[in-house]
Amino acid sequence: xxxxxxxxxxxxxxxxxxxxxxxxxxxxxxxxxxxxxxxxxxxxxxxxxxxxxxxxxxxxxxxxxxxxxxxxxxxxxxxxxxxxxxxxxxxxxxxxxxxxxxxxxxxxxxxxxxxxxxxxxxxxxxxxxxxxxxxxxxxxxxxxxxxxxxxxxxxxxxxxxxxxxxxxxxxxxxxxxxxxxxxxxxxxxxxxxxxxxxxxxxxxxxxxxxxxxxxxxxxxxxxxxxxxxxxxxxxxxxxxxxxxxxxxxxxxxxxxxxxxxxxxxxxxxxxxxxxxxxxxxxxxxxxxxxxxxxxxxxxxxxxxxxxxxxxxxxxxxxxxxxxxxxxxxxxxxxxxxxxxxxxxxxxxxxxxxxxxxxxxxxxxxxxxxxxxxxxxxxxxxxxxxxxxxxxxxxxxxxxxxxxxxxxxxxxxxxxxxxxxxxxxxxxxxxxxxxxxxxxxxxxxxxxxxxxxxxxxxxxxxxxxxxxxxxxxxxxxxxxxxxxxxxxxxxxxxxxxxxxxxxxxxxxxxxxxxxxxxxxxxxxxxxxxxxxxxxxxxxxxxxxxxxxxxxxxxxxxxxxxxxxxxxxxxxxxxxxxxxxxxxxxxxxxxxxxxxxxxxxxxxxxxxxxxxxxxxxxxxxxxxxxxxxxxxxxxxxxxxxxxxxxxxxxxxxxxxxxxxxxxxxxxxxxxxxxxxxxxxxxxxxxxxxxxxxxxxxxxxxxxxxxxxxxxxxxx
Length: 713
Hints:
This is Bifunctional diguanylate cyclase/phosphodiesterase. Helix content is 52%, strand content 18%. By secondary structure, the protein is α/β, with parallel strands linked by helices.
């Protein structure tokens, strides 16, 4: 998510939200302020919440403080919190930060939870203050008893009976001595029934051992009190969540005599917290666990006792097409059905299914028994997704999914590494044809990482001057004279040494870096060619530069080439731009339209690797091209020079036909990958114009080309 700023807060939205908030509170009846004062106060709180929403780094603490401030301002009606949370969930993001609402949902959920927690904490502290007053009154009654037993007993009874919270007194064996009416009402008993009950009978089973350990520490004098949240059984066996404060009463000799428990019913607050936690950890559309809960469970696997873990990372194939063609409503319904099927397909195995976002889901196999078991899970998921889905009146939708599978030992890896591997493997499954699973391969993964590292290093390498050009001679087959050179880029990596082009040119094309790199190659090649032209004008040496499809598609390519020629002083006729067949055929679009503009500048246009793609020969005569470069495979079979070989004879006839066709169209022909004298002789006999390959020299430095030109003067 990009960095947020306070400028993204809508001032008008803050005011409108505060007005809605105030109206929601006023609808409940009594509020402790006038409408104007209420709205002014809530506007200030809204401003605080809005600031927290976009603050960097993000923290929900301001929302917690707002919740406490509401209690301090005496907005303590239980319904007020309900209306506050409802208004926040429905309107806050859309009014306060409408431009960023989609990006800030998780923050808004966190603020909503913190607001509720702060409000609950404020109420709790307020109650505790009341409890403290009651406790002081109890102690005062005890002290007064020493002086005036009757008076103190009367005061104690008044406090005990009239307290709003539950109070209970038990002896050191857990037998209840007395309780007030509030405590009895909480548990659904009468006071008389409570007086013949042992505390242990009320404990929730999971709490029992811990509670008795606490009592033991009190009896042993290790503590005089404790405060915990615990569950009790009501008489009807439903669960009561309480905030329990227990104090030890000692006699004059310091011996423990009684325990006094003050109990607050926090069931509603606890259930609210659980609802908020569920919302924070589950996807609102599908009800599945979300990425937060998934990563919690995945981290727990690595902190636990499991020895192996498996992850199936799933992505629907073609989901975007469903959204675009049928609408987001249908897309959402499809996701709901897929989520339900995925959960059902692995529920018997006890695995976690979570939605990561969009159309991505993940299945966690927490204690894998091996690769085969995880593959079974993946295949069950693929089968569940593949069933056609009927949504309302639409035709049944058929979708498939791709799954990346990672199964490995927990030791020696981490959750982050597992998910990176799963994401990489999902990409492999997509690339291998979709509708299938792929299993993580460490060797392939290492290769992928190396490619990613090279791709990431490309921009910096160009800025640091790590690229250089070499030039491969192109020689006239009849004259034997050096008539052109092809500029070839090389990468001198500081750690890997000389990186061959086949390792980085494809990456540059995939990342779009080929445009910058191609621009640099063109500039450097033209600078060098202009220098050769000034020193050897009679040679009329042509420099040939490859032009990638993306580069040819770039806006302003014609102006860019013209500008380079003007800056360097290179005659346009001594620059040749090489494009592949796929770049110049009609289906390629923009390069065809830009060809005429490039040709109009006077530069030569050549089709590289001619014959490797779909060659629309009739279209050649309508293109402003000057040369064809025959692909290497046609020349390779001519290496032996054995014309009796059938493959060699076939390739000879193809080369002969292509040369004749090119000459008929007024084009010159260059044969690539010429490596033997026999090949050169045969090509010369076939009237091929020029040759390029190891026989005439490999790629070399500009200095070597200069020396070669001087030697032929």
